[in-house]
Amino acid sequence: MDDTEDDLKNLLNNPREALDLELKQWIDPTSNEGRAKIVRACLALWNNNGGRLLIGFRDDGTPDVDNAPADVHAVHAMFGGEKLQVLVSRYAAQAIAIKVQFVTDVGGQTHPVVTIPPGMRTPVAAKADLPGGSDKLLIKDNAVYVRTFDSNGRVSSAEARRGDWDRLIRICFDNREADIGGFVRRHLAALDLNSIIAVLRDAATIAKPPTTADRVTGEMERQYSRYLNVVAQREVQVPAGVGFRESLILVQGEFTCPVSNRASMERLLASAPHHTGWPPWVNLSGATRERLRPYFRDGGWEAMLDLLDPASRPFPPDLSYWRIEPTGVFYHIRALEGDITWDPDQHHHAEFDYILQIKRVAEVISVGLSFGRALGCDEAKASVIFGFRWRGLRNRLLTWWVKPMLTRCNREIGGQDKVVTTATVPLQTPPAGIPPYVANAVRDLFLTFEGAAIDNKIVEAVVKDILN
Hints:
This protein has helices at 5-13, 32-47, 72-79, 83-91, 165-187, 193-207, 212-234, 262-271, 354-374, 435-447, 456-467; strands spanning 21-24, 51-55, 99-104, 110-116, 130-131, 137-139, 145-149, 155-159, 244-252, 295-297, 300-307, 318-325, 329-335, 351-353, 383-391, 397-399, 419-426. By secondary structure, the protein is α+β, with helices and mostly antiparallel strands. It has a seven-stranded antiparallel beta sheet, sandwiched between helices. A hairpin with a 5-residue loop joins strand 3 and strand 4 (110-116). The longest helix is centred in the middle third of the chain and has 23 residues, at 165-187.
């Protein structure tokens, strides 16, 4: 999970309860009730394979201004130092390293953001009781707390029930598989593993159904036409020189939990991992501006985000559109990062950041696999087709403006305007197995920049950075 200051500020602009994001009102960490809420949340997020706890927000994502501490010093005094780490260690049956950051929202209030890292290989249980009033236990010794959906479809932290154990075990196996993959890579390095991966990648490409590329292109054209219609209907003034990235997800399998109404749509979005503070299918259902909220049209859910001027603050500058259809079709189009800015002197129309593109492709693949699982598909049988299309690339400079400390010898120029790539990923693919699919999806993209080739080791490192 990205935890830069800008990313966390974006997260505070639109916090929404999700499996990997818990919101709590201001609480007293010295009281039993306050300690219990923090401990249960941290244990549940660990068993979710990581996530964040935001303190100072109501369940609907609005700041809890009525109970806020007097100033930033009071916030640090209550939650700073190692107080929360010591508290969690007192009740967790195994060591959990947590990270506490303090981020200021647009209203000037400082909030503690508690980050629980991914990598859970064994579920953690509570190791001690924490009593409450009337013989009630706020934390139960030996209890396993998880992030789960209650009977009303809302996300909460609670004791694991029989329906939660399948997901817990799958997370453990995925992370253990990542360890095995790392072992294999270390011990087979002398056998030129990159060549082996290239051969397997080419074989997978040959084995793809011949209609996949045509299907992706046709579906993208259909969805792109819908986007243009919405732009026209809303009279959105798209700035000149803006490039775009389109993403398409086609889930291949039988759905036992289809998207049938608003509740199921919001539950689906809440199940997706938050690798950034502004995910592709961002849910602004609580936005004060009605035009930013998702709406139902022509058999699917969609949203248009035209945040093109400083009046849109606290949201970041953005021009994007997404759509979800019950048939397992997910579409997203967004203006390239740096092309939409409130400061005309800070735009990057002439540049194309390769690190950002690798991150965004990895994020979409991770979210797409999450969508397939949330739809109830059989992981052993289902797969997900991904399509990506970039527009407005000609004459752009392949660079790295987001992280200028990264250097490359060449600075290649884009030779064509549009590029389409595809990838078919088995639904049972764990997070550690995503990098090769990302490398395949961006390979042809970078080749259009005078034959540029990004080393697979760089791709793998960037993917791990965004996913972990």
